[in-house]
Design goal:
The structure is a homodimer. In chain A, strands 8-7-6-9-10-11-12 form a 7-stranded parallel β-sheet. In chain A, strands 2-1-3-4-5 form a 5-stranded parallel β-sheet. The first copy, chain A, contains 9 helices and 12 strands. The first copy, chain A, starts with a strand and ends in a 14-residue tail after the last helix. Chain A is of the alpha/beta class.
């Protein structure tokens, strides 16, 4: 009985070494190596290559190695009868909150404009805005959204949330399609932290953006396909939005020919808002492996009907 | 009896109109106009032209129109027997705090590096740092320093202060030359908010910067002459400092030939960390004028021996 690590990046080996060092009794394989596939009871995956999951006939569970598991649920090779788990990095939510705070503060104080002025040796003392001037709306009030609301609240921002269903939270949370217009109307900054599901794909569209106050600022730190790229460009070009900060994209790395690269009011970061730290989640992966083997319920199980 | 407004920028007229609208009974003159100079009882000044104060034989007080008054105390035409006042903008301290938070968050999350990468269409997911990784040291624990410490503390930073004399504050405050080495050694970020006095001029020198942890980050939001420019460049070039954020300079606007403009690790903003809002302080100026006329003590009087 063993674990196989399947990733689309160069971190497969690091993960294998880490899991082995934490649990020397568990065999851990790199999916690209040759080993007896029927031994594998858990696949530990991050955007694994298409088809790679079909190799294992005796899987008891699929362990996502990040917060989002959309890429597993969309995989036709992931048998719906096999439990899917995500990891909950204790830093994942606070890292996300700090990233969002950094981008909102940069927006408030015009730091990107000052950086561009510096490149031209331009002394341009433009006016600035204050924390009290902006109302922040957070779409998606799960673990990450709640952490973002908490940090922004402590910093002094007025914060509200929107979720699919009613939530108990320390801030007002609108819910469902009926709650959306009022929520959007009061969001000078819109932070998208929704999970990617068939229901949310393309939700950041022209019609949604039109519901925001004139000159609003969009931050998408969830998943690229939540956004209709061309609708964002149109909203920026008409002034409906003043700027957008994007950490996630339909295709990553963002292709060189994409219009976002050259748009002056789009700020790009390379999917670094919150990066899972293997060291802080390896123990969860090992606990889940042992739970599967021993027939106990694993941690952080995904509800396939909800998609998260 | 009247007020004269003396400024080196294009805001003299706006100030005159504002004071007149708030107190129609008080004559307010632009120093460049012709009017009976002996009528002037208060000079309301911001970096007034050299020699311009000598025109008024019957001054009862000099009212600075910003938080810093060094330019008044250095003016040989400002009779030491005449009281000097500054304005205390209710937003001045919170604006400063928000600026410092914005720059520290930008540093933590590498936003200037990401902005530069974007210009080159470069996808470079560099690691980031966390609020818990940085200890922030604030030099100058007056009204502004205290506000900065408060906001950074609420956001989660470990904060300490340094001041000339012992202070009661919500954070640990080192003091005097003896307290400086310990303070510096624990300041991964050094925020300078000292008043400019003969004692503090050039305090941000090579010997001070050498006391900081390797790779520290300097923020100067006080006055340009506190810093020895060449010492900063040397500290950046040897890696002693990782970056510096400067809002103030020996000469403003910063001359086009200055080395700071082209240094990759110097971030420049054009003296916008905290800008006095005339609307929020005009009433103080008027109250001080009436106090001078009626022989009562004005508000926010400067202690010439301390220099602030």
């Amino acid at each position: 009985m063993a674990i196989a690590v399947l990733r689309n990046d160069d971190k497969t080996n690091a993960w294998r070494s880490l899991l082995r060092s934490k649990a020397p009794d568990i065999p851990v394989y790199d999916y690209k190596d040759s080993f007896p596939k029927e031994e594998i009871r858990m696949a530990a995956v991050w955007k694994h290559p298409a088809g790679s999951l079909s190799a294992f006939p005796n899987l008891l569970g699929i362990q996502g190695l990040g917060a989002g598991v959309d890429f597993i649920l969309e995989d036709p090779d992931a048998d719906p009868g096999i439990p899917v788990m995500r990891v909950v990095d204790p830093y994942l939510a606070s890292d996300m909150a700090e990233y969002v705070l950094a981008q909102i503060m940069a927006y408030l104080r015009g730091l990107y404009v000052h950086a561009s002025d510096k490149g031209q040796k331009k002394w341009n003392p433009a006016p600035y805005r204050r924390i009290e001037d902006l109302r922040v709306g957070i779409m998606g009030m799960g673990q990450l959204g709640t952490a973002v609301a908490g940090l922004l609240g402590r910093t002094g921002f007025r914060v509200q949330g929107w979720a699919r269903t009613p939530k108990n939270a320390s801030v007002e949370v609108y819910h469902g399609p009926k709650g959306l217009p009022d929520f959007l109307q009061q969001s000078d900054v819109l932070v998208c932290l929704l999970p990617l599901t068939p229901e949310t794909q393309g939700i950041l569209s022209a019609s949604l953006l039109e519901g925001l106050p004139q000159g609003a600022f969009l931050i998408n730190v969830a998943r690229g396909p939540l956004l209709v790229d061309q609708d964002l460009i149109d909203a920026l070009d008409t002034g409906r939005l003043s700027a957008a900060c994007l950490d996630v994209f339909h295709q990553e790395p963002l292709p060189r020919e994409h219009l976002f690269w050259e748009h002056p009011n789009v700020w790009i970061t390379p999917h670094v808002a919150s990066v899972t730290d293997p060291d802080s989640v390896a123990d969860q992966v090992i606990r889940n492996y042992r739970a599967l083997i021993e027939g106990r319920p694993p941690e952080n199980l995904i509800d396939r009907r909800k998609g998260y």
